[in-house]
Design brief:
heterodimer, A: 120 residues, mainly alpha, 6 helices, elongated, B: 570 residues, alpha+beta, Sodium/glucose cotransporter, 2 domains, 4-stranded antiparallel β-sheet, 3-stranded antiparallel β-sheet, 23 helices, 7 strands, 69% helix, globular
Chain lengths: 120, 570
């Protein structure tokens, strides 16, 4: 791409290797990783905190959704039909929805983080 | 059941597995291909592969059997197996992929830079893997016995040989294709017969007695009791007996058994009238082997249900064959999306076993007495539909069941062989990996021939409890907590996982027969998981000088998005 201006060329060079990059990740020289962390040490902590908060939000919803069920079934004298319906067919869709919500949230957290670090 | 169609179906599944594996072999060239399929497996293929690997004999046969015997409480198993992936997704999936290690011991070493912790994690991987392989082989034996009357160990032997051949030849690359293929095969094999079964049920006037307690016989049925058992009656029961009941021999006599416990000898034939309630069996022979069957319907403590929930929710992330799959995703974001797809796929699959369980209570309630409840899924098509259609659908189910044994056993063998090759056998390399494969399968195969008789779902539950108490603390604290130290990790794994193992072993040996202590030991997760976490945290806090030097850098690698890594590097 000889005719493009320098700024655009830089974008092209840094983009493509995404597929092969992780394969070499483990063996990358330690210095580079260290350099990277001193750069963003506190930022990494803040990212971890937001991700952990999202995770605990899901755990809380999951606990509220599932936790009372055994008690509920035990206290209902004729709860067998309800237990069949809820356990057999009712819980899978909420689980998938929770998972999708979490992934969207986690990816947004990461995008925000990347933007934050790049703007520095 | 007519084996004329079932045997070709099983043979077809085995052949297809070898064929698809051989297809993968053609593109499996390097060591990286072998262990992690060169990390280039996209979310859709990988999700099908993970699901195919995860849906084991316990899912395909065991759940329907448990539901048939013990009612809807047992549906917590599939719910837990699915929710386990949600917990894995939110705490582990992306960071685990970004850690860049090959196996669980690799993760332990990368995070804690300690050979000792690595070896300990390896030992637990091998232990949990073998525990989980055992029921797969036994399930295969049971299936083949039900279908053809072949000796018990033959099915396990077939599965072992096919799995070793595929894994040793093609490694992870070829296994990925095999697993993905087998997910769709398993789904079809349960879905198509289920549709016909439900249609037949509707044609029958949609009886809803399946949900009543206790289950009743809907027509006169003769039941042959193969192993002696104790039957507990809440109300008197009239039954025609040929054989020995309560020590007295009868020949075609109509007996009125009073409420209470009655002993029925092996070989006795009982004829139940229409509408008779199905008596509750207290198995004498293997009752002590089975924590879940030791508590009969109704007496099952709430505590046991919560123990089951905790073990399955938290145990999934530590299963060796599940974890190793995440390294095959190209990056962390793909690992997350893959997990969501997996949740959808296994959730869809788990809608089916309850259907079989419910129809089993309706059409084959005597399976609770004959001790072959795991065979309910296999027997139903013949029982409900019958004729050529029933035979063909039964053959389809049998093929699917074999796919279940093959896929889960392949994944487990892969994981165990990986650990054996890297940490036990002298030098690394593809040839030693093949030796490791043989070793990984030989031990559980020998155990299944020698021990036998452990109910499928129970052995699986045990593996989950151990995994939840050892690997779950290691992974969660390793990924999210900076102050974890090697001594803390080792102590936590040993105390948590060890306690769970000892507790279940004691139950199996029949140590406390009943009471609160029995429930505590049979369902250890509720106390052993907090124990594992607590030990790991406290010992780590007590050894602050042992926090590995590069912890900050390692955690950054776990959590930073990939695009940022390349950006910063450039």
């Amino acid at each position: 791409m000889p005719n493009q201006d320098p700024a655009e060329r830089r974008v092209v060079v840094t983009g493509p290797p995404r597929r092969s990059r992780p394969a070499s990740g483990y063996y990358r020289p330690r210095t580079e990783i260290d350099e990277q962390t001193t750069l963003g040490h506190t930022y990494v902590r803040s990212l971890m905190r937001t991700q952990l908060r999202a995770a605990f939000a899901v755990v809380a919803v999951l606990g509220l959704l599932v936790g009372p069920l055994p008690l509920l079934f035990a206290t209902m004298p004729d709860g067998h039909g309800v237990a069949w319906a809820v356990l057999g067919f009712g819980l899978y869709a909420p689980l998938v929805l929770l998972a999708r919500w979490y992934v969207r949230r986690a990816e947004r957290n990461e995008r925000d983080f990347v933007r934050l670090v790049e703007d520095r | 059941m007519n084996s004329g169609y079932a045997v070709p179906a099983v043979a077809l599944v085995v052949l297809a597995t070898v064929f698809v594996g051989a297809f993968g072999l053609r593109i499996s060239r390097t060591t990286s291909d072998f262990y992690v399929a060169s990390r280039t497996v996209g979310p859709r293929l990988n999700a099908a592969a993970i699901s195919g690997e995860y849906l084991s004999a316990a899912s395909f046969l065991g759940i329907a059997g448990l539901v048939l015997v013990q009612g809807p409480d047992m549906l917590w198993y599939p719910v837990g197996y699915t929710a386990g992936y949600l917990v894995l997704l939110i705490f582990v999936a992306a960071p685990l992929r970004r850690s860049g290690a090959y196996t669980l011991p690799d993760f332990a070493e990368a995070r804690l830079s300690s050979q000792a912790v690595r070896r300990l994690a390896g030992a637990f991987v091998v232990g949990v893997g073998w525990l989980y392989l055992l029921p797969q082989l036994q399930g295969a034996g049971l299936t083949l016995t039900v279908l053809t009357g072949a000796p018990d160990s033959l099915g396990g032997l077939i599965v072992a040989v096919v799995v070793v051949a595929t894994v040793a030849a093609g490694g992870m690359r070829s296994i990925t294709f095999v697993q993905a293929f087998q997910y769709w095969l398993k789904l079809t094999a349960l879905l198509v017969p289920a549709l016909f079964l439900v249609l037949a049920w509707q044609g029958d006037g949609s009886p809803t007695r399946a949900f009543e307690e206790p289950a009743t016989f809907r027509e006169q049925r003769v039941v042959r009791v193969d192993d002696s058992l104790d039957v507990k009656l809440d109300t008197p029961l009239t039954v025609t007996v040929s054989g020995t009941v309560d020590g007295r021999t009868h020949e075609d006599t109509e007996l009125r058994l009073p409420a209470g416990t009655h002993h029925i000898d092996a070989g006795t034939r009982l004829t139940f009238g229409k509408g008779a309630p199905v008596p509750e069996a207290d198995r004498v022979g293997d009752g002590s082997l089975s924590p879940s069957q030791a508590e009969s319907r109704g007496e099952r403590p709430l505590y046991a249900t919560y123990g089951l929930i905790l073990a399955t929710f938290l145990g999934t992330m530590g299963l060796p064959h599940v974890v190793v799959r995440f390294y095959t995703s190209p990056h962390g974001v793909a690992a997350r999306r893959t997990t969501v797809a997996v949740l959808g796929l296994i959730g869809a699959f788990y809608l089916l076993p309850p259907v079989y369980g419910a129809l089993g209570r309706l059409y084959a309630p005597e399976l609770t007495l004959t001790g072959n409840a795991d065979a309910a899924v296999l027997l139903l098509p013949d029982r409900v539909i019958g004729g050529l259609g029933g035979d063909l659908l039964g053959a389809l189910v049998a093929g699917g069941a074999f796919a279940a044994f093959l896929s889960t056993a392949s994944g487990l063998t892969m994981a165990v062989a990986g650990v054996l090759t890297q940490d036990v056998l002298p030098s690394r390399g593809v040839r030693h990996f093949r030796l490791g494969t043989v070793l990984a399968m030989a031990v559980p195969l020998a155990a299944s021939v020698l021990v036998g008789g452990l109910p499928v779902a129970d052995a699986v539950g045990l593996a989950f409890a151990v995994s939840a108490s050892s690997f779950c603390p290691l992974l969660v604290l390793g990924i999210w907590w900076r102050r974890l130290t090697p001594p803390g990790a080792a102590a936590g794994m040993l105390v948590g996982g060890g306690a769970a193992l000892v507790a279940v072993a004691a139950t199996m040996a029949g140590f406390p027969g009943s009471g609160a202590l029995h429930a505590l030991l049979a369902w250890p997760a509720l106390w052993s998981v907090p124990l594992g976490f607590l030990t790991m945290v406290l010992v780590s806090l007590a050894t602050p000088s042992r926090v590995p030097a590069g912890t900050g850098a390692i955690l950054a690698r776990f959590h930073l998005p990939e695009e940022l890594r390349t950006e910063v590097k450039a």
